[in-house]
Sequence to fold (148 residues):
Amino acid sequence: MKLDTTDQKIIELLQTDAKMSIQSMAEELNITKTPIYERIKRLEKGKVIQKYIAVIDELKLKGGMYVFCSVSLESQQLEHIEKFKQEIEKIPEVMECYLMGGANDFFMKVHVQDLNAYHQFSSGKLASLPNVSQIKSSFVLDTVKKSL
Fold:
């Protein structure tokens, strides 16, 4: 799907405030409401806009801390990668997980209550998964910028 500058501006506005009214968008973009409504529907139908969500600050909601960790596997065979991905889906502490190219196989964002909880997670859940050879962790001290 080809996007023009108006489509891109609509997307930017929705990413800033998904509850922004079509009337407000029309005023901001100096376009009538009907074309904006039609463009949004086209973007939704084309799966450019996949869904609307509320972004929650986990730390304010549940407390705790974020940890970023990279995981290397002993074997990078497709079946081992797929098995690891399936197991990670089941672990509630893992908020995001990415298959990487380069030095590490996976990179993930983890939410835990404290260092003891992270120790339980990393040594009790993550390290016990088959094929895990190395885990490296970095602890978030402060969020400087977060864009969605």
